Structure formats: C-alpha cells, structure tokens
Amino acid sequence: MDIGMCQVYEDEIKSLEEEIKLLAEQYKDIQQESTFYSEEEILMAIKAFQSEFQGESKGHESQSDLKAQLESLEADLCFLMKFTCIQFTSHSKRTIERNGNRTVQKHRVSGKCHSLSFQLEFQLLEIKDKEKVSTVITHLSIIMESGEDLNVSKFVSRIEEHGDLLTFFRSLSSYAEWCEHRRSTFQHFKVVSIKLLSI
C-alpha cells in the first residue's frame, strides 16, 4: 500500500478518534445534567411540555403569539447589537449543581466588540425563596485582547473581583469604540506619511 494512502487513513482515524472523544464528553455532560433531576421532576416536565403543545392547558399563549414574541425579542437583540456593537459568537451553559432551591450554572460566552475579542466564563448562582428568585454571578473570568494596556488589565481584575458584568459591557463598548477611532486615525496618518514620502 502507498505510504501516502497510509497517512491519509491514519489522519482519518485520528480525526474519528477526536470526534468520538468529543461526543463522549458531550454525552457525559448530558448525563450529568440529567442526574440533577429526579424521575418525578422529569415526568412533570414531560407532562407540562406535552400539555402545552397539545393545547390541553388553558391560559398558555398560542403558538403564533410565541412566534411573534420570539420575533420581537430577535429584533430587540439585533437593535442592541447594532447599538452597542457587541456581537456574541458563542454561548454554552452547563448545570453543575442543583440542590432544592439552589442552582449553579456555568456559562461560557465569547464575542466581539468592534475589533476587540473577549471571552467570559462565570458561574450563576440562582436561589429561589418563596416568590422571589435572586441571582449572583461568581467565579467571573475575563479574557480580552487588550495588548499590554495596564489600565485595561486593572479594570478587568476589578470587574472579575466584583462580578459586575453590566459595567464590563458598558465600558467594553466605549473602550472598543475609542480603540477603533484610534486605529483608523493611525491608519489615516500612515497613508498620509506614505504619500508624503513618495513625493
């Protein structure tokens, strides 16, 4: 058999092994997720889901109302992304603890604001107390492409310490906008200086 063919088969085998490993990890996550629910909770959720889509339960919104709501939310999200220039490229969520009235979920979010990329990882602690639900962000970790800017590093550390995502996104939007202005200004002067040098 040709050595080149052997290499192709070996590469294909490696690729399949990696895919199997990834699927096994996803399966493990799904299994872990499902173990946090009791059989009774799963059956109740299935019944609620079936009754909602078969129209057995009264007081639920119709499918067309839900579709209109979804379209409205998508339009709002599109407006916010244009307004803030923050675009989310990926999001993953995994429940890591469920205990009575307490739930902990791990979130991973990545995105861009103008030309700046960012990644967030945090845990969301949700506590249900009778009629009230309170949420707290913990274990916040932010990765940003800010170069060697010491002020940005200090700011990110402070945000991570306080778990203040709202302030992060507000500041990110302003900072990225000024970075974009600065980049275009430097680009303009670079073009002008090249033209002057060529005279």
TrEMBL record:
<dbReference type="GO" id="GO:0000775">
    <property type="term" value="C:chromosome, centromeric region"/>
</dbReference>
<dbReference type="Pfam" id="PF13096">
    <property type="entry name" value="CENP-P"/>
</dbReference>
<keyword id="KW-0175">Coiled coil</keyword>
<protein>
    <submittedName>
        <fullName>CENPP protein</fullName>
    </submittedName>
</protein>
<feature type="coiled-coil region">
    <location>
        <begin position="6"/>
        <end position="33"/>
    </location>
</feature>
<dbReference type="GO" id="GO:0005634">
    <property type="term" value="C:nucleus"/>
</dbReference>
<dbReference type="GO" id="GO:0034080">
    <property type="term" value="P:CENP-A containing chromatin assembly"/>
</dbReference>
<dbReference type="InterPro" id="IPR027801">
    <property type="entry name" value="CENP-P"/>
</dbReference>
